[in-house]
Amino acid sequence: MDSSAATATILSIDQGTSGTKAIVVDGDDAIASVVEIPLRPVYRDGGSVEQDPDELLASVMDAAAQAIERAGVRIDAVTLSNQGESVLAWDPDTGAPLSRMLGWQDRRAQSECDAVTGKADLVASRTGLVLDPFFTAPKLAWLRRNVTTRGVVTTSDTWLLNRLTGEFVTDVATASRSLMTDLETVDYDPELVRLFRLESERLPHVVANDEVVGLTEAFGGPIPVAGVVVDQQAALLAEGCLRAGDAKCTFGTGAFLLANLGRTPLRSSSGLTSSVAWRVEGRTSYCCDGQVYTAASAVRWLQDTGLLSGPAELDAICSHDAHGAMCVPSMAGLAAPWWQSGAKAAFNGIGLATTREDLVTSVVQGLAAQVAELGELVAADLQRPLTRLRVDGGLTRSDVFMQTVADLMQIDIDVYPSAHATPLGAVALARKALNPALRLEDTIVPWTPARTFRPQWTRDHAHTFREEWRRVVESVAEQQGK
């Protein structure tokens, strides 16, 4: 790293679905402390996924304070990565929540999408996204129609940054996930804002990812808050995906495969979405991405139903053969390329001889097959195949799962060596904000793969499995779509 970068000590707060993590990174790339506070969304029938905002805010403050205390160093800047499309209503005068937080997995805003379905092509052409309740605007509109007309409705980052700094902002990568942002201008599109009947709302100011957005006195201070970014784009940067075609997949609550598109805001022709990767030095880089709504949350479901004692048991119980059992693990709907928010999970090929091990293996293979589908769609948009994939997240600790991904994708899988890709990506952007003269590549903590998984299945075997799995998922999508 350029020596000029080795000056600032950064507190990076990664506020995610399943917990809040705070890390302190010094100017020599050493992680001085890590604190994690778990959170658990509440899942209910009807597609409801909610979190307690007060509990979430307390986790941010507590994790950050503990990380600073454990590090025992002076903090030069704070940065925040956020969970993307989660939203809430809140009082801009006091900061107090006026609703529960709707998680990004919440599907209740499908009715808002249905109301404007005739404008789906317009939305896609302007935003690069698909008209789906996964994204922000439908959830904001649903909150207004069904919960409260008071205060403001925003994504979680705007609320958290307001509590830290008093500012009313969101970063450009997060804003690009709203269904209201023009992909070229990277600003709100008035016609789309009106489409979701949000024209009377106060919308946060959109900032670049290399900006100092304000000062906070929450941890001593005043300390600059800088380099804020949405979580998946943060991980894309941390893993060094700086060139068009570089790709990563994060295996967290869901699985998110992103590929750098360079400076061209391509629209997907294969059912994926396109959004801003980051805006740095006044220039915008783009990415395409595909989502699997349940990854670690599917493993948690296995645990909750008694099929698995915990994630650590995956490698002990799974094999490479589910003996005919197949699973479409769409516990929270199907994303690209099917985009069926109401889809339910399904098992196929189950018989009296099917064992617990077969069921768990089929879920693991179903998750890997969905990621392989995304990889193929990304390749179609890039007009060239992926040659390798960088991966991070908790499920990368499972050798069986990572090997299954390599087998089905038929490419090498490089495991990121740290459990902190998202907060480390935000650290890079904070460094850039504090020292604009730095090249972006010089802000990234250097890394080499902890492990590399290479395909063990033959190409024919992988092709046969994926064709059979695809027939199952298409049948499920057709039946549930009726």
Walk me through what this model shows.
The protein is α+β, with helices and mostly antiparallel strands. It has two domains: 3-239 and 420-435, ATPase, nucleotide binding domain (Nucleotidyltransferase, domain 5, 2-Layer Sandwich), CATH 3.30.420.40; 290-415 and 451-481, ATPase, nucleotide binding domain (Nucleotidyltransferase, domain 5). The protein is 33% helix and 23% strand. The protein contains 14 helices and 23 strands. It has helices at 53-71, 110-115, 120-127, 136-146, 156-165, 172-175, 190-195, 231-238, 296-304, 314-317, 356-382, 399-409, 421-434, 459-481, and strands at residues 10-15, 19-25, 31-38, 42-44, 48-51, 77-82, 87-90, 101-102, 152-155, 169-171, 205-207, 212-216, 223-226, 229-230, 247-251, 255-262, 273-280, 283-292, 326-328, 346-348, 388-392, 412-415, 451-453. The strands form seven sheets. A seven-stranded mixed β-sheet has the order 17-18-16-15-21-22-23, with helices on both faces. The radius of gyration is 21 Å and the shape is globular. The model is unreliable at 1-5 (pLDDT under 50).
Quote the CATH topology of the largest domain: Nucleotidyltransferase, domain 5
Record field, number of beta strands = 23
Q: Order the strands across the largest sheet as they lie in space.
A: 17-18-16-15-21-22-23
Radius of gyration: 21 Å
**Total domain count:** 2
